[in-house]
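Repro:
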Amino acid sequence: MSDLMIRDHNEVALFEANRPVEARTREENDLIHLWRIILKRKWLVLTTLGVVVSAVGFYTYTVTPIYRSTVSIQIDREENILPYQQMYEGIAGNPFYLETQVEVLKSRRLWRRVSGKLKDSLTSGQLNNLTQRDLEIMPVPGTSVIRISYYSEHPQTAAALVNCLSEEYMNSNFEEKYQATMRAREFLKAELEALKQKVEESEAELVRYARDNNLTLFADKDNVIIQKLSDLTREMTVVEAQLLANRYQEIKNAALGDLPDSSKTPSVKALEGQLLTLQQRLATLSSQYGPNWPEVKLCQEEIMKVEKQLLEETRRAIHLAKREYDLAQAHRQRLDRALQEQNQYVTKLNEGLIQYRTLHREVQTDQELYEGLLQRLKEAGVIAGMRSSNIRVLDRGDVPSRPYSPNKALNLALALAIGSVAGTMLALFRYYTDRTLRNAEDLESNGLPCLGTIPLMGAGWEVDGSKILNGRELEASESHLTAYLDSVSLVSWESFRSLRTSLVLSSGTAPPKILVIASAMPQEGKTTIAINLAVVLAQTGERTLLVELDMRKPRITPEFLHHSARGKGMSIYLSGNGDLSAQIEPTPVPNLFVIGCGPIPPSPPELIGSPRMKIALKLFAMYFDHVIIDTPPLLSVTDALLLVRQVDGLVLVVNPLITSEDELRRSLNMLTRANAKITGGVINGVRVQDISYYNTYYQSGGFLEPVDKEESNRLPAR
């Protein structure tokens, strides 16, 4: 018997029983798993696909076709008219120039021009249907090309509009250029008049200034004043050289014979030579004849005479040097005064020349600007008369031969793709948001081992099953019973036999002898499971007892027992009004016995929880190999919870169409709190064709598809 583990918050954990195979965890990313989800909901996918394709197909083949015509235009850079390159680069070199032209093409003013142009070529209805919303203007990235497209129900209208729009855009651009040229020409005229007046004023100012400052007769390179200053400077240099050569300052106090050679006159030099000769003769005569010799005295007299003459000549030389020095000094002073006056005059002249040159340059600048504007004015006049444009049409809009929209092939392909994806997503959404229990994996993920899957059994099974127990139409002969059992679906019997095998193998020591068959909600088929499980257990040759303890709404007693046995049952024994053995009824199935509910008591929980119930369970275990107890739903009443501690195991029947995952968890929590020995769960109400699929699933993964609720209601279920 497996043990039940409890999670926090009283949630049921996985059973860690000795199971041969661990329950697999669901892997959403497993492609095989996803494919099986889609396959089981293929009709939902196909229906969604059909709806999408039908809707798109209906729209595609019924919507009014739309035609598109496209014209391509190239917009080059604007030519410059004004002589200011910076102004031109700021406008024509604007990086948003092309985007600006796109907005011009979208402008209402241009649209009104186009509408007026097409008024004569289109009908009133076509003209009224023209709208800017159907106009598409797209610049080609990286180029100066713009594509203009128009969408219309009429192909001729689409072609006519884009061609007219391109033409009117070119005309409008030319008109604007012409007007701009004329405005520039008028501007140039006004500027020329002002500039001409300014040139005249500048020239007049230059002449007046030159006249006032005596600058009219002098050129920079031939200016007499500057030349005179240069001559005075040279003459001053000569005078200063003469003063430097004059030695008056050196000789003015010189003694006789001390004049430097450079200052001696020829007379001085001759007298000095004569004096030297006389002195030599005097010395010779004095040494020969003595100082009193007459010739000596005569020589002395001549020497004195020569010395006197030399003194006079020396004085005369000094006087001459002084005179020359004074003349040079006076000349130098005159030159110095003349140089100072000339320097002042030249300085004044230079200051006047600075202003003169400034005025002269201004006159030249004004003259050049005037001549340039005059030339531009002539060019503007020529350009104004030329019909030139920087816009040209690369491809005109042709009349489309087939609709642009709808694209039938593309729409249907997209419908198939979108429908498939939508159907798949819807199937996955239904799967992952569905709280119903679809397969054994869902049971085991909630801590409930799956013991088996029971297929759908219709009304025929219910009627024939009743005959097995009450024997009203089927005699208790082996031949009739064998014939009936052979007529039942092999898959149905195999499902219960598989359930029987799972119960036998559910415990490693001994299989549970006393089993409670319960369900979370009514109408899940627990009574049917209990009856047929008891039948297959009895077929093994072991004594099997089917006990009905659903004392509120019994089904075994009114439907499956003979009228003579309806006065017996567990309520008689539990209330102390009869023996237990007297309540047991045999059935036509060998080794199968039944105890019905008996009269419905006023308080079933008191009877089920009484000491006689414990005694009955002990006696059942002593005399029978298997005891199957049918109980009320767990979430409706608490009758089953009173038994769970006294029995060997509990099998929980789950019908996916009735019980949700939340209800299953609540039931397991109740059983856990009651310390129930849960053997496992049984999935009831699966289509017969899904049993083989279930077997495949149980080995490799998958899910079961529960039957419709209408079909499930046919069961003899509780």
